[in-house]
Design goal:
The chain contains no helices and 19 strands. The protein is an all-beta fold and 255 residues long. A 9-stranded mixed beta sheet has the order 1-4-10-11-5-6-9-12-13, with no helix packed on it. The chain has a 6-stranded antiparallel beta sheet with strand order 17-18-14-15-16-19, with no helix packed on it. The relative contact order is 0.12. The N terminus is likely disordered.
Length: 255
């Protein structure tokens, strides 16, 4: 099967409609091999192809005010070098999952209680990988997302310092087994991803119908088993693997 690689310099959307104040990012398609005829992309070339681009806010708009329980986050710039100083190509750069809160909505109403957004402008946060809507505003990439999509507050570069929000839990993942039960050494490719770890920090809990926080059923120090494909994975400065997930994805406490 032929592989197709898209980049911001290789896709064009000039034929897409523009809206007042908003326009799609400029993208062009250079070559699709067998999907083009004489270098011209046909309508059939796009069948089943979805291109997601950040919406560009026109320069005449100087501010964005999120509504309800939404927040506006200025996305952290992707790392362009490795720890050893090696330049990374665009395709190898890790997509950031963090940024700075630049604006917040007025909050939401739960039952008869008005609940304010729990983060303020200037706070550094980590958010769910596929959450929100991307915007290009004032020359920088931003994201509008719901407060519930924020995993936690992280004021340093080390995930161990993450302060989970709402019903999120930060877990240090247990190391994978190095050998089989019969004593055979396992390679990195054959090691089974563990779904057990130690709780490092927990959020304040979700809101009940009256707007009050409900404490989580797990606490820091618990060894837990969690759903294998849940949450967001991170690498700590100590080289250990961490995962931030919802408390509902924790299946059991081990002792």
């Amino acid at each position: 099967m032929a592989a197709i690689q898209l980049s911001a310099s290789s896709i064009s959307t000039r034929s897409l409609p523009s809206f007042e104040g908003l326009r799609p990012s400029s993208l062009r398609i250079s070559s699709f091999g067998p999907f083009t005829k004489g270098g011209v992309v046909t309508q059939q070339s796009f069948r089943g192809l979805v291109v997601r681009a950040a919406t560009v806010v026109a320069p005449k708009y100087t501010s964005i005010k999120p509504l309800g329980d939404r927040v506006l986050v200025k996305i952290k710039t992707a790392e362009e070098k490795t720890v050893g100083g090696i330049l990374l190509p665009t395709t190898a750069q890790t997509k950031p999952q963090g940024g700075e809160i630049v604006a917040v909505g007025e909050g939401r109403t739960v039952g008869k209680t008005k609940v304010d957004i729990s983060v303020k402008a200037g706070t550094q946060v980590v958010y769910s990988k596929y959450a929100g809507t991307e915007l290009e505003f004032n020359g920088s990439n931003h994201l509008i997302l719901k407060e519930d999509d924020i995993v936690g507050i992280l004021e340093t570069d080390d995930v161990q310092d993450l302060k989970p929000l709402n019903d999120r839990v930060l877990i240090k993942v247990a190391q994978a087994e190095e050998k089989t039960a019969g004593g055979l050494l396992l390679t990195e490719a054959t090691k089974e991803k563990p779904s057990i770890g130690t709780v490092i920090a927990v959020g304040p809990g979700p809101l009940d119908e009256e707007g009050n926080r409900k404490p989580l059923s797990v606490s820091a120090g618990n060894t837990v088993m969690y759903s294998k494909y849940a949450g967001n994975d991170f690498k700590g400065s100590d080289g250990s693997d961490y995962i931030a997930l919802r408390a509902s994805d924790v299946m059991a406490v081990l002792s």
